[in-house]
Write a structure and sequence with these properties.
The protein is about 40% helix and about 0% strand. The longest helix is centred in the last third of the chain and has 21 residues. It is built from five helices and no strands. Helix 2 packs across helix 4. It is mainly alpha-helical. It has a domain of about 80 residues: Orthogonal Bundle (434 Repressor (Amino-terminal Domain)), CATH 1.10.260.
Amino acid sequence: MNTHTPNEPRVIRLRPQTPPPGSGGAAVAPRRPEGAPRPPAPKEPLWRDLVGDVLRRERLAQERTLKDVAEAARISMPYLSEVERGRKEASSEVLAAAAGALGLGLGDLLLLAGDELARHARSRMARGRTSPASPTAARYDGLCLAA
């Protein structure tokens, strides 16, 4: 039976963690319980995040405002902002318009985003997160075309 009422403060008592014998009295961080899930490994970046980062970086490098680029691309300023922040998955038409407003072609935008993805993959390998023998550790340093 629950005797706690909404207006009453709830008190939770914690038992103090005693240091293990022979540790010299130093407190020890609690261990993760067996079977508890491990924290997730850093994920691959989403394509929309990479493309948005490239658009924002290029716009800022040109010292242009969001309003200026949105008007030139004929898309709304809030929508362009969401694309830049990776909140919206933009269509190829919107990406081409935004890239064009920045003086880039759609291919240029995609190549720059691909370079970011390759850089991220290399840094993951350098940190030892992916073993070179794994199938996901394929290394792409440029454009790969298949016929």
